[in-house]
Design a protein that fits this description.
CATH superfamily of one domain: Band 7 domain
Helix content: 55-70%
Distance between the termini: 228 Å
Mean pLDDT: 81
Strand content: 15-25%
Shape: rod-shaped
Low-confidence stretches: 288-300
Strand order of the largest sheet: 3-2-5
Structural class: alpha+beta
Largest sheet: 3 strands, antiparallel
CATH class of one domain: Alpha Beta
Order of helices and strands: HEEEEEEEHHHHEHHEEE
CATH topology of one domain: Tetrahydropterin Synthase, Chain A
Number of strands: 11
Length: 300
């Protein structure tokens, strides 16, 4: 009886173990049959080591267990910083830093994984950045690279897009974060800037002197015009005074002339007569006196 009870206990334990094993197997199979693709990613289906071309979008998906796994490919915008060097049109060595924002096309994720794997940045993007940068910068002089930096960035962006688009890489933005030239060229640029600043300063000082000279000349002109106007005013005033005085004297003379009648003139002559008649010397003899009123002649 004890043996029977022992056998039953062993059977129960065995059943429990089998159940646990079955649960473990079911859990393993279940977990192997389910895959979760994060948002902004694509799941590339690989069956028995071969890329089937099928992809999963973000979310939960079922797949055949054990023989199939899903490779997660990131389709979000990523940033790559590339240090490169090139030679400008005027043979100046240019070291530059570029920041590239890019993302992997979801539609071509399976193709990229199949042909490049997950290391597509080192295999495709970085070399393409170097090549595009060298090709574009060779078209510009060192000075133009500085003054036309925005145009250079756009042209590198377009050249890079043309190189990597066939691999499913999309260039969202490209920026040149730094230019660095040789020490000799930097010294030449600095010397040129100093010369230009000195030229600007000299021109400014010259313009200031011209302005001051013109202002002084204008002040002298204004003063001369004011003095001339004052002289004209005084002359006009004096002429007017003379005219008024002359008019007054003329008017007085006119009135005097009007008042001098024959009778008045005779009266004035009588008032001034001293009682002696005027005498005249006639003929060749100084001893002959003739009276003006017809009296007899007196001879001495």
């Amino acid at each position: 009886m004890e043996r029977s009870e022992k056998s039953k206990t062993e059977v129960k334990i065995g059943g429990i173990i089998v159940g646990i094993v079955l649960l473990i197997v079911i859990a393993i199979v279940g977990s192997s049959s389910i895959t979760v693709v994060p948002s902004g990613h694509t799941g590339v289906v690989v069956t028995l080591g071969k890329v089937t071309g099928d992809t999963f979008s973000d979310g939960t998906h079922f797949k055949p267990p054990f023989i199939t796994h899903v490779e997660i490919m990131d389709n979000q915008i990523q940033k790559s910083e590339v240090e490169t060097s090139a030679v400008s049109k005027d043979m100046q060595t240019v070291a530059s830093s570029l920041a590239v924002n890019y993302h992997l096309s979801a539609e071509q994720s399976a193709y990229v994984y199949k042909t490049l794997g997950t290391g597509y940045v080192d295999k495709i993007l970085s070399p393409a950045v170097h090549e595009a940068t060298k090709a574009v910068m060779a078209k510009y002089s060192a000075e133009q690279l500085i003054t036309q930096r925005s145009a250079v960035s756009i042209e590198i962006h377009d050249a890079l897009t043309a190189k990597v688009s066939e691999y499913g890489l999309i260039v969202d933005e490209l920026n040149i974060t730094n230019f660095d030239f040789s020490a000799e060229y930097n010294a030449a640029i600095e010397a040129k800037q100093v010369a230009e600043q000195n030229k600007i300063k000299a021109n400014t000082e010259k313009e200031q002197r011209v302005i001051e000279a013109e202002a002084a000349a204008s002040e002298r002109t204004i003063a001369a015009e004011a003095e001339a106007e004052a002289i004209r005013a005084r002359a006009n005033a004096e002429a007017e005074a003379i005219k008024v005085k002359a008019d007054a004297e003329a008017e007085a003379n006119r009135k005097i002339a009007q008042s001098l009648t024959d009778e008045v003139l005779r009266n004035k002559s009588i008032e001034k007569w001293n009682g002696q008649y005027p005498r005249m010397v006639a003929g060749g003899s100084t001893d002959m006196l003739i009276s003006i009123n017809g009296d007899e002649d007196t001879a001495e």
